[in-house]
Amino acid sequence: MDTKQRGRWCPELAGKTAIVTGAGRYRGIGRQIAMELARQGVNLVLTGTGRDPTHYPPEEKRIGWNDIDSVADEAQTLGVRVLAMVSDVGDVRAGREVVSATVERFGGADILINNAAAGVGHDRAPVIDLPLEEWERVLRINLHGCFIMAQAGARAMVERGQGGTILNISSIASHLAPANRAPYAVSKAGLETLSRVMALELAPHRIRVNAVLPGLIKTARAATMSETDRWDGYVKSFVPMGAPGDGSEIAWMCTYLCSDMGQWITGQNIAVDGGTSWIR
Known about the structure:
Number of domains: 1
Distance between the termini: 31 Å
Low-confidence stretches: none
Strand content: 5-15%
């Protein structure tokens, strides 16, 4: 994947450690964030679900992609240390194990990026037809999972006493509230409220908490539609700037917020969406 690179523009991040959840997809935002942090010299703890390779998108199969292990190999070429862990963020014990492993390997986490999200299933349905198990599945990962990781990460940061940054990757769906997407939109709206509450609680400990809201990003989830004739028309009608993001925009915003340049920003919901959320 061609990604726009800016080199090392946040030298103060060198030597810090970041946990990035949901980082294993080749075209995923998590990988983009992880690699941008690695370019700044940040050591990484990467989590993924241990996906069955038979379910990988065609592009990943074609290039021999291997989930978080491939991202770890890629990051290590930049000279940073990387720990890759298969983990279910929705499981309390698993989430705590990720944080404990980070403390044991690196002495603690300076940055936590809650990026993991539930895969598309049968949740895209009207509320009156929505199976309860789909509602619970999406909220378990998107909201409960972020709570588990944020709680464990924040506890470790407070105990360490060196401050830190927690970023929760939300979505403009929380504002747009599109039809047939109730579990996703509600989970992201809840995540933004959680971010605000935690920002106020953790400010005395010099821990900043923000939510980043991506707009239409050309990830693996959008790949199917992007290969059809409907894609260009959809983008032009949906995104005022006329083009989707490629994920680098999200990675840059996250890196900025983690750096000293973002040291006075906390409790914010920041949309990176080409103007989409302001015209709906």
